[in-house]
Fold:
Amino acid sequence: MASSMYRLVYYSRNHIAHDEAVFASNVDEILAKSRVNNERNEITGALLFNAGCFAQVLEGPLDRVEAAFERIQQDERHGDVSLLALDPIGHRSFPNWAMGFIGRPDMHAERFAGIGSSSGFDPSRLSGDEIHSLLKELAIEEEAA
Structure:
């Protein structure tokens, strides 16, 4: 019997050093490890970083998504981890992304400026659905580029 699919959306505060090289190295490490783990565990999703916060969508079997979220909560690079949504889904929004990262490319600077002005990119002011929609839209743009 196939496991039911779930979508988990959370945000956390960045606890990585503000030095750009250290930050880039840590994010690359997070992404590399996440991609390996997520592919093995049938999890897809996307990660957004902006203004000192991470926002992430994880999709997959409930037990595996919950286990991944537990690891994230224990990771010292994330602080104030807050669950925004955990819902059953009929299909994946990020079927091709073991873990996509959106946040560094210059092409998103204008988009983030709009997000920042409306919310200060304070993910606590955004719903799980809003973060999911934002990441899905950015992922579509990224795949088309």
